[in-house]
Amino acid sequence: MSGPRTAAVVGCGDVSTVHLEAIAAVDGIDLVAVCDTDPAARAATAERHGVPGFADHRTMLAETSPDVVHICTPHHQHADVAVDLLDAGVHVLLEKPVAHTLDEAARVVEAAERSTARIGVCFQNRYNATAQAARELLASGELGAVLGAAATVMWTRTPDYYRARPWRGRWETSGGGLLINQAIHTLDLVQWLVGDVTHVDGHAATRFYSDVIEVEDTAELLLTHDGGARSIVYGSLANVAHSPVTIDVTAERGSLSIRGGLTVTRADGRVETVPERVAPSNGRTYWGVSHEVLIRDFYARLDDDEPFWISPREATKSLRILTDVYARSGIGPHAVTPSHL
């Protein structure tokens, strides 16, 4: 980072916690404003951090001129805010998903590619020690060709989770349920580790929370990757507890298993382990441990000539996968012909 940067956060909901913690922890970043349409959330966050609070991001931008804005709003607000900021030449760090629909994601991609500002999307689990080690090992070719993967996301939610933030359970505001709001990180890691997805099959449905939400709480996917590898993914929020996310990758000469830490089992019987880092936070444990690592890296790369490596175009890959599943399942506004990746 060439010098001190000023930052602002738009959206003072739950996930803003880890962004605000990272801004406070990283030397050379000064928080200058927060923004939220909810007066109580805005006032509480502004008072806690000793900065002005704004109800509108355009007013905030005009009065405080931050170098970087972190967008932590509900999904359906991502594109409008991101496009406004990029067109104003302001750097953007955007929480996942890139947008709640593919059309809105395309708007962000177009704005990013015409802007001189940088934008990154928070797929922070790519920065996990386990994911980085797995990616490096698979890319090295030591284990031979990757044959495929199997992954699970089996968590639980309560009706109060949705009632507290009604946007989470609606197609119009969230763009989906389990797949876009929880399992998207796992979908992103599977395609990042195994390869770009060229075909999607699967089904999504509301198995348990149909009296509370209109979006899906359970899904199963079959993914075909570039080169022919095959992966399966299962997720549900109807589990009675939070089970660890699992990702198992099978290659010609060994396998990888991520269950908290990473276990590498080679064909000759050797076993290696890579522990995951620990990152104390007031945020939810299932958000992982790597938000601060990603945020540090984003700020360090602001003067790079190349776009940030987790760009809107890159982040659209996982959105396209889950949108195909919605289309195949005939649910939500995505009940149209699948895109056939």
Question: Would you give an account of this structure?
Answer:
This is Gfo/Idh/MocA family oxidoreductase. Residues 7-121 form the Gfo/Idh/MocA-like oxidoreductase N-terminal domain. Pfam families: GFO_IDH_MocA, GFO_IDH_MocA_C3. Residues 132-256 form the GFO/IDH/MocA-like oxidoreductase domain. InterPro entries: Gfo/Idh/MocA-like_OxRdtase_N, Gfo/Idh/MocA_Oxidoreductase, GFO_IDH_MocA-like_dom, NAD(P)-bd_dom_sf. This protein is an alpha/beta fold and 341 residues long. The chain folds into two domains: 5-124, NAD(P)-binding Rossmann-like Domain (Rossmann fold, 3-Layer(aba) Sandwich); 129-276 and 312-334, 2-Layer Sandwich (Dihydrodipicolinate Reductase, domain 2), CATH 3.30.360. The protein is built from twelve helices and 14 strands. The chain has helices at residues 16-25, 39-49, 57-64, 78-87, 102-114, 129-140, 159-164, 171-174, 178-181, 184-194, 291-300, 312-329; strands spanning 5-10, 29-35, 53-54, 68-71, 91-95, 119-122, 146-154, 197-205, 218-225, 230-236, 246-251, 254-259, 261-266, 271-274. The strands form two sheets. The chain has an eight-stranded mixed beta sheet. Strand 4 (68-71), helix 4 and strand 5 (91-95) form a beta-alpha-beta unit. Helix 1 (16-25) crosses helix 11 (291-300), helix 5 (102-114) packs antiparallel against helix 12 (312-329) and helix 10 crosses helix 12 (312-329). The chain is globular. The relative contact order is 0.16. The mean pLDDT is 95.
